[in-house]
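User: What would this chain look like folded?
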Amino acid sequence: MPALVAVLVVLASTLSLVAFAGHVEDRGATIDQFLPAHELEQQARAMAAFRGGVAEDERLVVVLQGASDAWSDARVAALGSALEGVSGVASARPEAGLAALASDAALRFVVLELEPGTARLERARALVAACDDVLAAERASGERAYVLGMPRLRADSWRLARGDLFRVLPVLLVLAFVIPWIFLGSWTAGLFASLMATTTTALTLWSFFALCGPPSSLVLLVVPILWAGATMDAMHLVARARIHRVDALRRARSELLAPCLVTTLTTAAGLCTLGLASASSLLRNLGLVSGAGIVVAYAVTFLLGPPLLALLPAGRAPRWPVAVGVALMRRARRRPRLWIGAWTTLVLGALALLPALRVANPFPRVFSPGVAIGADLEHFARALGTDLNPIDVVLTATDDAGRRPTVLVSAALVAARELRSLPSVRAVLPFDAFDAALLEDTRGADPRERERRLGDALARDELRPWIDAGGARARVQVHLAPATQAEKRGLFERLARLDQSMLVHHELRPAGVGYSVFRVEELGLENLKSGGPLTLLALGVLLALGMRRRDAGPYGWLLAVVVSAVPLLLTAAMLVVTSTPWSLLLLPLPGVLLGLALDDSVHLLWRPRGAGGTLRALPAVLATTLLVAACVATLAWTSFVTNRAFGLLLAFGLVTALAADLTLLPALVRRSRRR
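Assistant: Here's the prediction, encoded as C-alpha cells.
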C-alpha cells in the first residue's frame, strides 16, 4: 500500500508539471526579456517616431519564393490585400529593401505592420495561424511562402517548449527510477528518487508561479536541473541506509545532514550568485528558481524522506559500484604523479584552446534544423546573407539647423557611408535601395528649391518608415553578415566616435533587434566577469566553513575546489572543439556545473564517524552523477539549439567531474598527506 501511494503521488506531481506548462506565457519578444527595463525604454523612445507612436516593435515579414514569374506584382498585391483582412494586421506593403539584399531575384517580400497588442501570446498565436491560413490558400505547386517575425517566434517558442516538456518528462521519470535501481539494487531506491524529483520540481515551479506570476517558456529549462538536483540527496540517503543494518535511517540521516547541507548550499550558491549578479530579470529568475529548488529538495528529502523510506521495503546495495570506484582510486593512489601529470596536461591543453572561444548570439536562429520555423529561418538567412539581426541607427536633431531636411538627410548619408566601410556590413537601408529616388529631384536646384523638392521626396510612402521630417529624425538600418561579438563591438565604437566628431547637429542612438542582441551578450559577459568571482568566493567560504574537520584534511576544501574547477575548463575547451560559440543562454552553465561537481568531491572527502567514509559514499556518488548527467542530457531532444548545447555540455562536464573525483582527487590527497 505505501508503494502504491508513492506511485500515485509521482503520477500526480508529473501531471501537475504538465498543467504548469499550460500557464507559460511570453509577454514580449524573447530577446527583450533579457534586457533591463531602462534599456528597453530608451530604445522604445528612439524608435517611437517610426512605429506610429506605438511602443512595441511588432511586424511580420512574408517571404515568397517560386519561379521567376510566379509572384507577379498583381499577385503580390492581391496577397497583401488578403493579409490586410487578418485581425491584427494594420497594413501590408512590398518591401524593396529586403529584395535588394536577396541573392535570388525571384524572392519577394511583404511587410505586415501590426496593430498594438500583438506582444501578448494569445494574440500572437491567433495572428500567425490566420496568416498561415492565407498563405496556404495562395501557395501553388513548387512555391514557397512563409511568415517570420517576433509574433511567430513567440508563438512557436511557446508551442515547442511545451512539447519538449511533454517529450522529456517520461524520459526523466524512467531515468529517475532505473538508474537508482541499477546502482543501489532496489526498486525502492528508484521509487523514492522519482518521488523526490517530481514533488520537489512541482512544488518549486508552482511556488514560483504563485509568487511571480506566469513564467516565460525559458523557465522550463530548469526542469531537468531541478529534477536531477532533487535526486542527489535522496540517493545518498537510500544508499547510506542500505549500509547500516540497525537504526539504518536514523544513522544515515545523522551522517548525511551536514555534508548534504554543504553540497546543497554550494550548488544553490553557484546558481543564485550568477542570478543575482545578472541585470536581466529573466536570468535572475532562472538562477533563483534553480537555487531555491535545490534548497527545497534538501528540506523535503530529510524531513519527509526517512518516514517514507521506513514504510517501503528495504534492500542492500550491490557491491560492483564500490568495486569499480575503489579500483580507480587505488590506481590513482599508487601512482599519483602519473595521474596528476595527465590531468595537468589536459588542463594546459584546455587553456591553450580558450583564446579561440567565440562569443556570438544565435538569435533568432535558436531552433533545431528539423523544426519548421528553424528551416524557414535558415532559408531566410541564406537568402539575405545576414544574421537576421538588423541594427537600427536613429539620428535626432539637436538644434534648428539639424531639423532642416537637407541637413537631416546629409547626416544620415554620412552615417551610412561610415557603416558601409565596415567589412561585416552587407547593406545600409534605405540608401542602398532608395538612394537615387531620394536625391534625383534635388540636384542642381537652389537651396530653397532643393529643400522643397526633398520634402516632396520624403513624403513618398516607401520613405516614411525611414525619414520623419516633421520630428527631425532619420533612421538607417544596418544588415550584417554573421559577425562575432568583437566585430559588433567595433561597429558600435565606430558609431560612438562618429556621433562625437562629425554629427554636429544630431544625436545618434542605436536601437532595434540587432542592438538588443548585442547588449544582451555584453550584459552576459559583464555578468560572467562579476558573478564568476562572486560564485568562487561564495563556494570557497562555504566549503572552508563546512569542511573544518581534521579527518578531511586542513586543505580538503581547497582540493575540492581545484578538482571541481578542472571539468569547468575542459567543458570550456569543448566549446571550441565543437565550434559552439559562447552565448548568454549558456550563462548558467559554469555555476550549475561547478555546484554539482562539488557535490561528489565533498561526499568523497567527508569522513563520518567510523571507518569507510569514502566507501559508503561511492554507490551514491556514481549513481547521482550518472543520473544528473542523463537528466540534463535529455535537453538534447528539445527543439532549441542552445538548450541542446547546454544539456550536452553539462552532461560532459559532470562525467568529467566524476572521472576527476575518482582519479585526480585521491592522487592529490595522497600527495598532500605525504607532505
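DSSP finds 23 helices and nine strands in the chain. If you want, I can go into more detail on any region.
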